[in-house]
Amino acid sequence: MKVRAGTDTPSASTRTTTASTNVRNADTTEGLVHHSGPGSGFDHPPRSTVANWEGRYRAAVICSDLLSTVVATLTAGTVVRHGLPASLGHLPNLLSWLAALAVLAALPATHAWDVRELGQGAEEFRRLGKALLTAAVGLALVGLAAELSHLRLWVFFVVPTVALIAFPLRYVLRRLLHARRRTGECLLPVMAAGSVAWVADLIERTQREPHNGWRIEAVCTPDGLGADGTREIAGIPVVGQLNELTERVQLGGYRVVAVAADPFWTPRRLQQLAWELEDGEAELLVAPVLMEVAGPRLHVTGVLGLPLLQVRAPVFGGGRRAIKAAIDRLGSAALLVLLAPLLITIALVIWAGDRGSVLYRQQRVGRDGKPFTILKFRTMVRDAEARLAGLRNANQGAGPLFKMREDPRITRAGRVLRRYSLDELPQLVNVLTGAMSLVGPRPPLPSEVATYGPDSGRRLLVKPGLTGLWQISGRSDLPWEEAIRLDLRYVEDWSLALDAVILWKTARVVFTGQGAY
Description:
The protein has 517 residues and is of the alpha/beta class. It has 3 domains: 171 residues, Rossmann fold (3-Layer(aba) Sandwich); 123 residues, no CATH class; 195 residues, no CATH class. Helix content is 44%, strand content 13%. The protein is built from 17 helices and 13 strands. A 7-stranded mixed beta sheet has the order 1-7-6-2-3-5-4. A two-stranded antiparallel ribbon has the order 8-9. Strands 10-11 form a two-stranded antiparallel ribbon. Helix 1 runs antiparallel to helix 2, helix 1 packs antiparallel against helix 5 and helix 3 packs antiparallel against helix 5. The protein is globular. The N terminus is likely disordered. Belongs to the bacterial sugar transferase family. This is Sugar transferase. Keywords: Membrane, Transferase, Transmembrane, Transmembrane helix.
């Protein structure tokens, strides 16, 4: 049993199936028999064994990393050898396998194969990147110590080649896993314990996000009852009170126990719960409910012999931010060069439509409240602003934003540009000039910022982004409050690994046109 700290908004949860209709797939867990509702035998459910699919998925990840390493090593042996003198004999082969050994040693050493992190979140990719960086540094140190000057060719060739192969392979495996989870397979059985409101929110989130791999199968509440005195919450059976949690977990074979703060949970009782579950297979997650902070800012520390959650201040400067700024400038410049033919073609299509201006300029608010002019390809008719007043009653946008799924002001070319976010490509110029970042909160309007409270105003602590969590989580389909929450989550929990995941997912979202209108 592992004890992990969560947040009071369990966004890492996933889809559940109700106890009345749920049938455990044999590939998910073995030996667990479902019971269909209150009074149908909850007191004596059999234990389950660890899921088979977890071991198979971990084996698939390991095989993909091995394949990436072997392919990179063999490629290096073929390509790099041509740049070395023949007098070196078998040294190229030795260096190739030395590089492969360094990579394969670094992967388990950095816990890059930890099954708890595989298949979801940015942590999996962060650990893979850490392993490859560790391997590169190790090879460089060996080269210096052994005076093998030619080893640097493998450092700068083999390790990056492994990354170019391993990251996409892991992503493909993750997509396959998520596809199975959407059909109800490869899910972890979860026992949720807490207030009715917290459990209901958790269930709703798991139903909305099946890819994270949770399936809530039973609930314990303070009084053993659900909403309105029933024995269920959103179709999930309430199997007992909080003081019966250990017994229910031990009988039910649950893999995750998610516990929310409640007056019942004194420090002594939580400690006792952890002790009682530590010999089982269940992983205990406790929501601190103090604030919605996670990721690199949350740490467990000991002060005066007490275990405390340490919430570090968000980092808005330093080395990582310098790296982010360099990636923004270099990335936007490279994309502008690569996409130049497409940009020119789009400009010509817009101009040919009505001989109007190609670009649309609008005032937005950037970091620290500094205004800047955002650039977009024009997607509406030339008198779009004049027509806006007559369309106010048809507004379908969230919060202060005006949105219509069938806005009559959008041109035929504009609909295509908006669907695939091609109208936003000129913002690469804003990124290049430093007003925006490749990844960040959505760039707000001045009228929108005027309505901000202290919480929403924290979005202005960082540069707005060309894409962000809002872009990959629904875009225009998001409720206004959820869009604000995602932007604040990005500001609070930013990391380079999170940026990499967002950029990767943006390509898929843009290609499908999800939430764009």
